[in-house]
Each structure stands twice: as structure tokens, then as C-alpha cells.
Amino acid sequence: MVEHSDPHARRAYLLHEAQFGAPPAVVASAPGRVNLIGEHVDYCGGWVLPMAIPNRTYVTFQAVPGRECRMFSSRLGEIAFPIERPERTGDWADYVRGTVREFVERGLRVPGLVGSITGDVPLGGGLSSSASLDVALATALNALVGGALEPDQLARLAQAVENRTVGVACGLMDPMAVAVAGEGEALLLDCRTGATEGVPVQFEAASFLLADSRVPRALAGSKYNERREETARGLAALVEAGWPLRDLRDVPFERLDEALGSLAPPIDRRVRHVVSECQRVREAVAALRAGDAARFGALLDASHASLRDDFEVSHPDVDELVALARVVPGVHGARVTGAGFGGFVLVLVSADARQRLADELVVKYYQPRGRGPSILDAGRGSPPARVDYESGRDLPH
Ligand code: GLA
Fold first, then answer.
1. Which member of 174, 292, 310, 388 is catalytic?
2. Is the CB of 34 under 6 A from ligand 1?
């Protein structure tokens, strides 16, 4: 299981050893993710197309005597709590508590623990730093206690941690993306059935780049919940009007205008986003399979316009970042990603224009705002969650 070479895993191992005076028994990691297209449709039973990114979260564990869990995080601080009473406290420790709780409730015996968390997934930028942490924790604990849970079970366990302990009503997209997306692939996920299909990411001379707007996402939580309620109201109104729907995704794209006729603003706009975005995912999958970067880029642009105007989850700075990227020759398309209201922008750019794009964004977006540039390579589908090291093997290299 530890065939790859990952210097970050080695660093996590050494940090654990320095912190606790003995090596970890397990090092596991999980990537962040970017959703290529299919935004704000996972809770409407729709289709999404996330891809794992190169940035990862690393978790180490060692069983110790006693009934306490002690964790150290380079970015978040230190926590300790009793294994038997993992109650919610409203801080990052809830991710660890919630994971322990889910294992215990599945009948798995969790020993006293020491462990660490490190990583480089940007926090709070729409790249699923929390799902990455949830799934890395679950993967590491599963290896430590011999839980034999499969990746999709670990994803559902991670979602339960968010829903039941952290208190975020997130969908299945993020944990599935980081737990099961295949290397070199984006993951087409049917959020109603849970069915998945890998779609190879294979544009010949174009790739995805991520640029952080660095807008603080103060309203993200409350606005996210508001959008969820609005889509639920849209569904209820359509069912009331006689449409035989289980989810908003069931509105046929060809009959969208007809459906919108029975809805009042802003609900009509919210529904138009969801139904048109589901259609764009279908078209984007075809474009990705055909290696058609121009078509894929046009769909990113259309998705952004819909998220900005109909779903209203963008931000003026994000719109400007998208617009600045969009006019650079060689850029195929760009859009806001994740929950929105700030965070990262996804750009599909041809290989020979990458540097020019980065330079333009530094000069025209970051410098005038006095914000440090944060531009990442999204890769082509990084490895999903994995065990990097188990005791009895060689130190990770
Ligand atoms: C957040 C949520 C996801 C999804 C996206 C929007 O990332 O965690 O479940 O709803 O927003 O597509």
C-alpha cells in the first residue's frame, strides 16, 4: 500500500515523532478537490464533476494507553478530548471528535490516540479542505483499527461527521471526490443514486489553473443554507403545480421555460440555474471525453454567468478575477467554484498561455488590492485518499 514516494508523508511522520517522542503507526492522506462543473446542484439530486487536486491533508495516528485522544495540528493548534464522550464544541476538534464517534457507533473499538494533522489544502477557499480533513482522518483511523471500510463507506462516514457533529448540511460530492476519484480522472457523480463514473482528464494542450480571490467568505454559511431553502421551495412549488418531480434535476431541460412560468422571483432564477447547470454537466462530460477544451471552456463561462446572475453566489471581486482571466488570449473559460461568495476561480487555459495568465492576474488583480497572489495548478486528477505508511514498513520517502 505504500509504493508511492511522497515527501509530505515523510514530513508528517517526522513531525509526529518530534511531537510525541515516538513514531506514528499510520500516516494517511486525502486530497482537496475542485468541482469542474455542476455547482449548487448536489443537494438537488443533480450531477457533479469534481476532480482531486495535488494539495493534500496528512493525518498520523498512534494508539496509546488511556482513553484520551490528543491531536496536534501545525495550522490549527492542539486539542484533547476523552474518547468515550466526544461531544461537539464548535471548533476544528469536532472533525476529530466526529470521526471517533462514527467509528465507535459502527461498533469499532477506538483506542487512546495521539496524532497530527498537516497539509497544504487552502482553508476555506472552496477546495474542500474540510472534506479532505474528514476523509484523511477516517482513512488513518480505519487503517489503525483494522476497520476494513471501503473508500465509498469512508466518504459516507465523513459526510456523517459533517452533518451530525460539525453541523454542516453538506452533500456527498466533496467526501466522494476526495475518497474515490481515480487518478487522472474527474468523477462524474449522480448525487441522487450515488453512482460514479471516472472521466479521464485529457485535454491535449490545456489544463486547469486555480486562482484565489482572497475574499473573506463571511456570508458563505448563511447564504448557502438560504440557497438550499430556495431550491427546496422551487421544487415544492413545481410539485404543487402538478409537475411529477422528485428532485429539481427531474425538470426536463427542454421544458424549463414552461416550468419557470409557475415560479415567482427569485425562485425562478434559482431553478433556472439548477436545471441549466445539470444540462451543462452533461455537455461538459461529452466535451471532456472528446478533449474539446474550447467547448468545455464555453460551458465554464456559462456556468459562471448562471452562478452570478441566477443563483447569486458570486462576489464583485470574483467576477473581476474571472473577467480578467477570460480576456487573456489562450484562456478557454473561467468560473467561480465551490460554494462561492469568494474563494477560488477555476480557469481552463492552454499550455502556452499559463505563464501569461498568471502574470496578468498578479499585475491586474492581486497587486492593486494588496493581496498576495495565490495561484495553483489543479493537476489532472490526483490520487484519492490513501494510506501512506503503516508500522512495520519503511519510513515513507
Ligand atoms: C459546498 C458544499 C457542496 C456543494 C457546493 C456547491 O462545497 O459542501 O456539497 O453544495 O458547495 O456546489
1. 174
2. no
Nearest atom in ligand 1 to the alpha carbon of residue 171 is 9
DSSP, collapsed to helix, strand or coil, labels residue 375 as strand
For residue 337, how far is its CA from the centre of ligand 1 (angstroms)? 9
Ligand 1 pocket: which of 53, 174, 337 to mutate (most atoms <8 Å of CB)? 174
Predicted confidence at residue 256, as pLDDT, reads: 98
Please give the Cα distance from 390 to 396 (Å, whole number): 9
Confidence of residue 2 (pLDDT cuts 50, 70, 90): low
CATH superfamily of 206-377: GHMP kinase, C-terminal domain (3.30.70.890)
| C-alpha distance from residue 214 to each of 121, 341, 384 (Å) | 14, 11, 26
Q: In the predicted model, what is the mean pLDDT of residues 209-225?
A: 84
Domain ranges of the chain: 7-200+384-395, 206-377
DSSP state of 262: T
> CB within 8 A of 64, min separation 6: which ones?
111, 112, 113, 114
Supply the pLDDT for residue 251.
Answer: 98
- The partner residues of 349 in beta bridges, in order of sequence, read 207, 331
Q: Convert the pLDDT of each residue in 319-361 to its tens digit.
A: 999 999 999 999 999 999 999 999 999 999 999 999 999 999 9
7-200+384-395: CATH topology: Ribosomal Protein S5; domain 2 (3.30.230)
360 residue type, one letter: E
Q: Is 352 a catalytic residue?
A: no
CA of 115 to the centre of ligand 1 (A): 28
- Does any ligand 1 atom lie closer than 6 A to the CB of residue 86? no
Would you give the DSSP letter of residue 205? Answer: S
Task: Give the integer Cα–Cα distance in Å for 237 and 314.
Answer: 26
Euclidean distance between CA atoms 331 and 361, whole angstroms = 12
Residue 168 alpha carbon, nearest atom of ligand 1: 8
How many Å lie between the centroid of ligand 1 and the Cα of residue 170?
6
Cis before 266? omega within 30: yes
The residue written with cell numbers 453512482 in the block is: 195
The per-residue pLDDT for 208 is 98
Evaluated on CA atoms 312, 317, 323, 328, the torsion sign reads negative
pTM: 0.94
